[in-house]
From TrEMBL:
This is ELAV-like protein. Belongs to the RRM elav family. GO terms for cellular component: ribonucleoprotein complex. CDD domains: RRM1_HuC, RRM2_HuC, RRM3_HuC. Keywords: Repeat, RNA-binding. One of its GO terms (molecular function) is RNA binding. It comes from Cottoperca gobio. Pfam families: RRM_1. The gene is elavl3.
Length: 367
DNA sequence: TTTAATT
């Protein structure tokens, strides 16, 4: 037998408001520089389509930001659904937690909490648990695991249709990796009290282990939903002028930045209409035709990212309406990857449109 | 039988 579920036990999970509280620590050092532990926040469960600009705007409404970053996939440029905000004033960080934690944005409820100091020991501390009794609640699961360490988040996956019914599968993130290791040793293959079957406990996969094909499928599904579902959202606007090309900066070589470099992301978004000219210089320029008027840069990242290194994307827009004129360009570093992307995406149906994709022909300006 | 939590 393994573990008792003691019903009176209180969990100390930092899932809810205000996240992790930091015991007692200096706020301001003698030289006047701020201690990140009181100013640096992590924001989780952001809507997939939130941009860096929107993220900055939302948190900038609280107070002056020292730096902020929406974390994105290095290859596809897609948001990973979380980000960091470092305020100048610790009071603003506190205020951001109090006013923005729990805020509902589209389908998500965002979580705002203090970021733990970054260190190797907190990485890979996420566990995947399966074979859970269907009756086990999230709280039950936390109680089962909490004997091995401090739980940062937990989740039980539920059936989509019969909403609320457990799939017997969940996740537990510990504060430290070694706590997660101990939980595996202690609980993998064990039967929770009263359960008929043993549970499986292992390290979780990285959530973006998706193949190019899977990404295309996902993209297609989200695009298709746009045309079939009763989607009347009036929700997405953080009322910024997010209109013009947000040509996301992509640094192709993993430069070793000093930690917490004051360089903000925005300072890297300087690529404009550079290298849009032919298969020379920085890479292979690809012409994408039949984009919808609503298309934006992110759709190009999503389409081409899975095939390899993408250094630039651009949607061509009408100057006055700011709608896409039906085409755009993508620059890829490697010929093979570009050729594969073209072979795969030419004729690809995106929503109700069939894309035409080819290397850009060198009919200089004006076609 | 795998969700978007460490810059």
């Amino acid at each position: 037998m393994v573990t008792q579920i003691i019903s009176t036990m209180e969990t100390q999970v930092s899932n809810g408001p205000s996240g992790t509280s930091l015991p007692n620590g200096p706020v301001i050092s003698t030289n006047g520089s701020t201690d990140d532990s009181k100013t640096n926040l992590i924001v989780n469960y952001l809507p997939q389509n939130m941009t860096q600009e929107e993220f900055k705007s939302l948190f900038g409404s609280i107070g002056e930001i020292e730096s902020c970053k929406l974390v994105r996939d290095k290859i596809t440029g897609q948001s990973l659904g979380y980000g960091f905000v470092n305020y100048v004033d610790p009071n603003d960080a506190d205020k951001a937690i109090n006013t923005l934690n729990g805020l509902k944005l589209q389908t998500k409820t965002i979580k705002v909490s203090y970021a733990r100091p970054s260190s190797a020991s907190i990485r890979d501390a996420n566990l995947y648990v399966s074979g859970l009794p269907k009756t086990m609640s999230q709280k039950d699961m936390e109680q089962l695991f909490s004997q091995y360490g401090r739980i940062i988040t937990s989740r039980i996956l539920v059936d989509q249709v019969t909403a609320g019914i457990s799939r017997g599968v969940g996740f537990i993130r510990f504060d430290k990796r070694n706590e997660a290791e101990e939980a595996i040793k202690g609980l993998n293959g064990q039967k929770p009290l009263g359960a008929a079957e043993p549970i499986t406990v292992k390290f979780a996969n990285n959530p973006s282990q998706k193949t190019g094909q899977a990404l295309l499928t996902q993209l297609y599904q989200t695009a298709a939903r746009r045309y079939t579902g009763p989607l009347h959202h009036q929700t997405q606007r953080f009322r910024l002028d997010n209109l013009l090309n947000a040509s996301y900066g992509v640094k192709s070589s993993p430069t070793l930045f000093p930690r917490f470099s004051p360089i903000t992301i925005d300072s890297m978004t300087s690529l404009a209409g550079v290298n849009l000219t032919g298969p020379t210089g920085a890479g292979w320029c690809i012409f994408v035709y039949n984009l919808s008027p609503e298309a934006d840069e992110s759709v190009l990242w999503q389409l081409f990212g899975p095939f390899g290194a993408v250094t630039n994307v651009k949607v061509i827009r009408d100057f006055t309406t700011n709608k896409c004129k039906g085409f755009g360009f993508v620059t890829m570093t490697n010929y093979d990857e570009a050729a594969m992307a073209i072979a795969s995406l030419n004729g690809y149906r995106l929503g109700d449109r069939v894309l035409q994709v080819s290397f850009k022909t060198s009919k200089q300006h004006k076609a």
